[in-house]
């Protein structure tokens, strides 16, 4: 990320040094962008990009109508949540009462939903999407009332393929199959690649939707030790793959749900190499990949996939319009089989919403929108971390995600976040207790907080209330 | 149907007698509606309903700008296709090359698609749906970009529940779960109720989509003997259920795909009784139920289901807008399990199109639209039957569906419709060969013709060409 061939990165690195060395202290106001331009001779664009970059490193924060200040995260030594060490066996899923509860809350009004992982309405470009909808009705044959072709809307597939350059891919429209959402893409992959009684590998903690899907398909899940910053541990992965009992692996290489971890490039490369070596397909969920806080789009495992062993799934449900049901999979060498599974279980995606998203991707609007949503999520994330550090008991550990929607918070081991969930709901606050992210008896002192809600005073108070409840 | 407490039915019965007894002969013009009113004192409405009823019995046909004529079907003794007698074992599915071919045609241009079972665009109320779309964008929170609640759009569920009165049901919105299309509803039911290696029962011939779904889920299919007029044979069903090897049954009680058969009410009642007795769930596909040619909506098996053993699936894909992906299931006592399967594999249906259809159902527009589409399908059906009888070799047997989209045609046993398929494609005509509707070596001299295309001279010529090719 710190490729100093760029002026703005050189400048950002310099400011970082000043902060780390104490030249700039917590709360100090940075010179305005104009002032820096006048002093240094850099362009406005270079300086704003540099400030944006430093902000994305959580070193400074912008205050509306005031300017940039050295953030208090910069000085604190934040404790990262511990790596997981689940028992290395595969467990079949028994309980989901807690999940039913958390999902049941979706309809509850007047509850601060720190539990749910999707963008708040304020973040969505609704007016532009509505325009797109009217245009799609005009453009599509029969206004989108007919079936699409089985593989999916051609415009959308072309744009997703074009978009793959952002993560170093070079897909064509033939490499994409659309689905009504990312979870349906993962479901189709699992249905195609496994049969009941098979075992799959996941991270731990892992998105509970994957656990539920596995249960529904009669699969055993082997959760592997996972580092909260760098993702699944490679030694454990290698060992598990070498047992030859595993039929597929499901991973989020970028801003994983719930831990927020991002696999370094070397890890991604090594994971792909291992999957190829053992000839076991990798189902990659890259749904958060576009929501990075850094200066450029991270790669994913598909970037390094030359043999077609990676099935990369994604959607716009986290970035654009969950209700449109627009997802896809880039199925590598399993295209024919996935296409049949789609035909058998889905036939066709919703024609009109897929056209709208294809069009939105085409005209650069998606890029503009992402720039905005990334900046907001980054701000929110910093504010959440600050408030958690201020109001939660000493010893609280917090992840420092470089993108996505989620903070992973680890409390004192005596605290049970399932109890906290019930307590917090009495104060109209919903959290996602850690134990729903594992089949094993783990993470009972952890919780996932979504920072997809817009940052307000009420939200700050909700987090402060959580802190008091924990104390 | 011939409930003579209605004036129009009394009058229709009288005309039927005149035709059957030879008072009216093939080609005779009937008096105009005005003339009949003047003669009989009946109202315009009574006489037109009577004529519509007689037409639905295939006894008369209307010619545009001319009037009603005694149809030549009325006089011919049409041979119904033979009942099926598959070997009573369960077979796992091996080949689908032919299906891939027929589906591959979907994109082909300039081909007369007698193979495909959905309404042609001319039959869809596209302008009205577009208006609904604009209204839905205004009405829905966030213009439909957000997730719905898991069970589905409340307005839509209310309207589907209200609509159940047409088939004698009394559902509430709590009895409905929406899905993105009917096949996804059936898929969710099968995933919930079966596991790989289980056996399900179907009619024979059976919609190939059900066979593909079964294959994808690792299920064995036991095809039962089926009468082309009255549907699955009850003795065979009873025998199969009593073996206790069966985990679910999938049936179309109305205008079955492909045979066109409709189970009489007594059969529907007996089927539900049997399923209850053996405690085996019935997945009913009632997608054609609203497309009847008679005077009233037929019941379905769900009508007679008091214990919740029937999961009734349907959609608007055959009647309103395939591309909208609006389907549903009324899951009876399996609601909790089906809801979980939906949550795991789909999460949420496309928000906006489900709202549009809910609204369309609410304002009586659906009823008006159905009246129109039913009349057109009925006309088409009669014209198809006439043309087949005129141009196909003697001995050809044709079903006489009372609704739906499909004619089932049985040719001389020496003819292979798979060969005919290839031959016809050279003349830009696509048919659905009979053998794709069974896992066994059956129906190779049969084919399914869809009468969803608008009736034109070109279409007549296509059917005549088919006749020549067969000769």
From TrEMBL, chains A, B:
Domain annotation HTH gntR-type: ranges: 5-73
GO function term, MF aspect, one: transaminase activity
Record flagged with keyword Phosphoprotein: no
Keyword Ribosomal protein recorded: no
Bilayer-crossing regions: none
PROSITE patterns per UniProt: HTH_GNTR
Protein name per Swiss-Prot or TrEMBL: Aminotransferase class I/II-fold pyridoxal phosphate-dependent enzyme
């Amino acid at each position: 990320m710190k490729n100093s061939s760029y002026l703005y990165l050189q400048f950002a690195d310099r400011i970082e040094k000043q902060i780390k060395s104490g030249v700039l202290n917590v709360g100090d106001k940075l010179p305005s962008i104009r002032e820096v331009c006048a002093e240094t001779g850099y362009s406005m664009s270079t300086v704003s990009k540099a400030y944006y970059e430093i902000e994305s490193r959580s070193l400074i924060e912008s205050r509306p109508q005031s300017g940039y200040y050295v953030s208090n995260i910069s000085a604190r030594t934040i404790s990262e949540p511990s790596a997981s060490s689940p028992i290395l066996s595969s467990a079949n899923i028994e309980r989901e009462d807690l999940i039913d509860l958390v999902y049941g809350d979706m309809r509850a009004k007047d509850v601060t939903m720190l539990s749910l992982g999707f963008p708040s309405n304020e973040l969505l470009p609704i007016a532009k999407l509505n325009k797109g909808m009217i245009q799609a009705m005009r453009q599509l044959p029969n206004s989108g009332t007919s079936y699409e072709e089985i593989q999916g809307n051609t415009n959308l597939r072309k744009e997703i393929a074009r978009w793959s350059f952002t993560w170093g891919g070079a897909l064509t429209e033939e490499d994409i199959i659309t689905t009504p959402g990312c979870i349906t893409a993962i479901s189709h992959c699992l249905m195609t690649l496994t049969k009941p009684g098979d075992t799959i590998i996941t991270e731990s903690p892992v998105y509970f939707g994957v656990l539920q899907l596995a249960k529904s398909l009669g699969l055993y899940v082997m959760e592997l030790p996972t580092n909260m910053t760098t993702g699944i541990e490679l030694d454990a992965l290698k060992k598990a793959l070498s047992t030859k009992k595993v039929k597929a692996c499901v991973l989020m290489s970028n801003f994983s749900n719930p831990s927020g971890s991002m696999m370094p490039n070397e890890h991604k490369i090594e994971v792909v190499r291992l999957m190829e070596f053992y000839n076991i397909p990798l189902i990659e969920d890259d749904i958060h990949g576009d929501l990075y806080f850094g200066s450029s789009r991270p790669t994913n495992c598909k970037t390094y996939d030359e043999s077609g062993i990676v099935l990369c799934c994604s959607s716009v449900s986290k970035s654009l319009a969950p209700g449109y049901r627009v997802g896809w999979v880039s199925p590598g060498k399993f295209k024919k089989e996935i296409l049949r599974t789609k035909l058998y279980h889905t036939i066709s995606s919703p024609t009109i919403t897929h056209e709208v998203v294809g069009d939105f991707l085409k005209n650069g609007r998606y890029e503009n929108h992402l720039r905005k949503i990334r900046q907001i999520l980054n701000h929110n994330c910093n504010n959440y971390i600050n408030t958690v550090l201020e109001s939660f008991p000493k010893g609280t550990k917090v992840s420092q995600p470089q993108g996505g929607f989620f903070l992973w918070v680890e409390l004192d081991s005596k605290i049970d976040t399932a109890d906290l969930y019930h307590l917090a709901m009495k104060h109209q606050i919903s959290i996602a207790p850690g134990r729903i992210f594992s089949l094993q008896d783990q993470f009972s002192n952890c919780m996932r907080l979504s920072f997809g809600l817009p940052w307000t005073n009420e939200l700050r108070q909700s987090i402060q209330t959580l802190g008091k409840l924990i104390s």
